[in-house]
Amino acid sequence: MHDNRNKNAMKRVEKGMMKANSTRNLFAMSAIILTTFMITTVFSLAINYIENINLMQMRTLGTAADVSLAMPTAEQEQQITSLDYVKTVGVRYMAGSVSMKNAEGREFSIVLQYYDTAEWEKHYQKAISGFVGKYPANENEIMLSVDALSQLGIKAPELHMEIPLSYSDRNGRQERIFILSGWFHSYTGTGMGFVSESYCKNAGCTMAEDGVLSLSLQKMPDDFLRIQRDVKLNENQFWDGAVLMKSSSGSVIAMAIFLVMFIIGSGYLLIYNVLYVSISKDTRFYGLMKTLGTTQTQIKSLVKRQAVKFACIGIPIGILLATTVSFGFVPLFLEKGFNQGKSAMEAVVFFHPSIYILSILFSAFTVWIACNAPAKAAAKTSPIEALKYQNFAPQKTKNRNSKNGGKLYIMAFHNVFRDRKRAILVFMSLFMGITMILGVNGIAGSYKAENYVKQYMDYNFEYTDIQVRQYEQLQKEVPQFDEHFIEQIEQIEGIKNVEIQKTVWAGIDFDESDFGDFMKIKYEDSSYKANGQSFEQMLAGLRAYANAGEYGCYITTLMDERILEEYNENHPKKTIDLEAFWRGEIVITGWDSDYNAPNAALVGKTLTLTAKSADGKATDFLVGGAFDFMDDTNRLANSLGHHKMIEIVPDIIYVSEAGMERLTGEALISGIGVDVEEINDLERVDSELQGINRTLTTAEWNFKSAVDTVEQFNQMLYAQKLLGNGVASLLIVIGLINFVNVMVTGVAARKNEFAIMESIGTTKKQLRKILTIEGGIYALISTLLILTFGNAFLMLVADAVPNLADYAVFEYPALLVIRLIAAIFVICLSVPGIVYKLISNETVIERMRSFDN
Amino acid sequence: MAILETKDLRKIYGSGENEVHALDGVSVTVDEGEFVAVIGTSGSGKSTLLNMIGGLDRPTSGSITIRGKELLKMKDEELTIFRRRNIGFVFQNYNLLPVLNVYENIIYPIEIDGGKTDTEFVKQIIHTLRLEKKLENMPNNLSGGQQQRVAIARALATKPAIILADEPTGNLDSKTSMDVILLMQSISRQFRQTTIMITHNEEIAQMADRTIRIEDGKVISGGIKYAR
To answer: What is the pLDDT of residues A465-513, one digit of tens each?
Structure first.
């Protein structure tokens, strides 16, 4: 074997080729830049999205720690600290809570805590932002979250300002003037206050009573399971684990991988086509090189070296562009959305080296596979064939028994399928691109604010009395809404209906024999049993409640008539006598569950109820049915609490309006549901209702508006929608580029063939007609694929949608399908003709010669 | 009667110092049914002349008249249609359409003209060119000589005024070359087909009725027919 000692010669050839093919270089480079840009953008968006979601979760949880254990013993503390898979151990003390009322009479919710250095630096600081000042060191120093400051009415905090607080700690109620040592922005929704170590010491806080150990582990969730096995807990202790939404980031990763594969496929097609056309054009040149003694390996490396050069320039430019977009524009968008309150997510851009490593690897891989086949083709050129070479479009060899192949449309058909591989690539890329767009859009479209409102609200506007929705609300309930208020609401234009829920607390005569079965079932699942108390002991407790007149529950009117009808349909064996219910003779108790149904044991029994109101008198009601949690999904009803926290009592008793009348005439209006005629009227009705709300003098009520819910929904999905739309537009661009690319190269490759056809008399008009028919065939077949396989795919998406979110409802994107198909036809029918016009400016003989020489 | 007449044809490429006179005042006449060979060295301008006559390229000045029609006054589209009705091309590298089989290639010029195929005439050509057994073959499956015979058949199919053949034997071995030339000669006589053929082979040129000799873009001899 002889060595090849002609490296320099090859380099000279390569240099010459690069110089001579400046247009091709530009195209190849652009293809690589585009591919790299898209790959980098997808990686960057995906990684940033996951990181942002994780950050948001960490911030909402208020800690970067994985698990926590409250009130640990000294042995437990020692054992945990010595475990090798525990990364960081932080200590928290629950120091107290602020109990003050603001000007409107609302109670504050500020938690006072002490965090040690490890907890503060390693766990908490990651979950907050905008920290100013320092952690409290002296006993009288305090640090507050912006939330807490605003509850206290402080809008412009200053360091060392005085903060007078009335709060309670382990020693009871306290009054103190603290000095503000710092503040920060927290995302947990509760006001946070931090005190110093010396404060805790003086207050007498201990680990076993007020302490919490907060741990970050090496590997979640494996180590979480390990620590549960390794450390023995006392009866009342439990591990509190912060499990992140791993499934969501999993689907983002899967989507990103799928997208990147798609981009690699498209990038491959782009680069491959550019190189292939250029090599086909230079076939004679390669043939000549071979004639002169260049080996196959040398020709292959000649092509590949050029590709490497393109990659060396194209990949960095692509990455640079993508970086500008993902670090410049995307955060700008998110930041703007966040500042305008459109997004719940603050834009934090993460610099991840893996984005670039992955992008370079994948882009280089794309270039490599794309140049491989053309390089091989160039290397395989036989010198003799190269001299005769006219067309690089593949030649058919199989005989065909037909006489009408010369007809324009039949020629077009044969042209489309002349290179089957290529035809399949076009169909696949068009079909896949469009199907993906439809899929992404179908998913994005299924998240609709309207559906979200329907899922999370029973009415467009909901008023609730919060007194009856709290536990242990022992003060007498004060009516929050009155008939006049209801009338005002009813008078607003565009209101469809106003439904009123009335509630009263009533004592129940404690008849041990009637309640026997009920109590037995309840006991099994109660804290009495869990705490080792016997049934008898429980009974004694209940008797004490009964004697004090505290044994009872809230009685409420059933708001939705359909619920009863549905109940009877769903439970044909234990139907409720509707008429008796509406007459007010029977009541329904709740709530049971599948495994625990004490209320069912009350059906058929008679309860004597006495409303806690001025006109309350003992009234008998027959229990006509028992609801479980699923029977009444109306949230106005199922959010009712317990007046006194008695476990062994029905959670709720439903009556009809007539039943309530029998019981009392002074029931509270505990809930109001308002629906509008037209969903578009929502904002107007909202502002009118707000106006009426201002006339209320009471404060123990809550107003929930669908407008807020829509806003909350939009905030929640802002970033996701941005991402979804970004992905969809990326797909459209890829699909278009792919198709235009294949069309352009397909026409350019046949330049010589067209020149021959013209030379024997085919007019330009006829040629354009052939090309237009070819485009039409591409469009037609792609459309057929979309309407069959594409729709099948959409059906799968439709199936998956309800799993994505409980309010997501899939809608077939019919309009989009029509638009996309129209777009395909417009492009397929016009692009080939335009390309032909561009390449057919030279005279026939010039075009024929460009291949001859 | 002259079916083709060119007057003072000139074709200049480039300008200034790089000016090349590919054709330098060429005047030629060809009568109906004549089989003319154009001979000259490489670069003498013979292919340029043929392309001008076929309307594939436009001269810098001069005129070309075929069947009394002035070519240079026609628009592109008009010229293409005139070409497919009046001129048949035979190229050195055959230039058959790869997506069509032999039969389809032969009748292609008739089809694109929207004309009805004269089946009897096409059969006759196919028979003369001995292509009966190859009609279903794709061009790629044929030898060079066979491909050139198909190209000749295609050129003949529209019964053109003139067949222009640019070195039709350039890619063929000598035996096949002779075979093809004999066929062209016999066709010219059988169908009274005017044929202009470029060659640089003196022996082949001798088989023509007349030889036009071109050097440096000028006609040296044979530009006008003299009575023998």
So the answer is: 888 877 666 666 788 888 889 899 999 888 888 989 999 989 898 888 8
Q: Does A19 touch chain B (CB under 8 A)?
A: no
3-state per-residue secondary structure call for A527-541:
HHHHCCCCHHHHHHH
3-state secondary structure A369-403: HHHHHHHHHHHHCCHHHHHHCCCCCCCCCCCCCCC
Closest CA to A216 of A122, A120, A129, A125: A122
Pairing of strands B69-70, A67-70: unpaired
Instruction: Using DSSP, state whether A673 is helix, strand or coil.
Output: strand
Confidence tier at A851 by pLDDT (50, 70, 90): very low
Closest CA to A653 of A548, A524, A505: A505
Q: Which of A393, A398, A403 sits opposite B104 (nearest CB)?
A: A403
Number of DSSP helices (H) and strands (E) in chain A, helices first: 32, 19
* Among A753, A764, A843, beta carbon nearest to B56: A843
Q: What are phi and psi of B16, to 5 degrees?
A: 60, -130
Q: How far apart are CA A829 and CA A771, in angstroms?
A: 8
From chain B, the residues in CB contact with A405 under 8 A are: 99-101, 104
> How many of the other CB atoms lie within 10 Å of CB of B77?
12
For A696-728, b/e burial (b = at least 16 CB within 10 A) is eeeebbebbbbbebbeebbbbbbbbebbbebbb
Of the candidates A431, A307, A314, A417, the residue with the CA atom closest to the CA atom of residue A369: A307
Give residue-wise pLDDT tens across range A806-829.
777 888 888 888 988 898 899 888
Question: CA–CA distance from A787 to each of A344, A537, A781 (Å)?
Answer: 38, 70, 10
pLDDT in tens, A75-119: 888 888 898 888 889 999 988 888 666 555 556 778 899 999 999
- Best A418, A752, A759, A852 residue to mutate vs chain B (most B CBs within 10 Å): A759
> Is A402 an interface residue toward B (CB < 8 Å)?
yes
Q: Is the pTM of this model over 0.80?
A: no
Dihedral through CA B87, CA B88, CA B92, CA B97, nearest 10? Answer: 120
A417 in contact with chain B, both atoms CB, cutoff 8 A: no
CA distance B168 to B180: 8
Q: What would the DSSP string read from start to end of A183-235?
A: EEE--SSSEEEEE-HHHHHHHT--HHHHEEEEEEESSTTHHHHHHHHHS---T
- Collapsed DSSP state (helix, strand, coil) of residue A416: helix
**What is the distance between the alpha carbons of residues B47 and A21, in angstroms, rounded to a whole number?**
29
Residues A136-166 pLDDT 10s: 999 999 999 988 888 888 888 999 999 988 8
Q: Which residues on chain B are in Cβ contact (under 8 Å) with A754?
A: none
Contact B81 A761 (CB under 8 A): yes
Phi first, then psi: give them for residue A9, nearest 5 degrees: -60, -45
Give the Cβ contact number of residue A538 at 10 Å.
19
- B54 contacts A761? CB cut-off 8 A: no
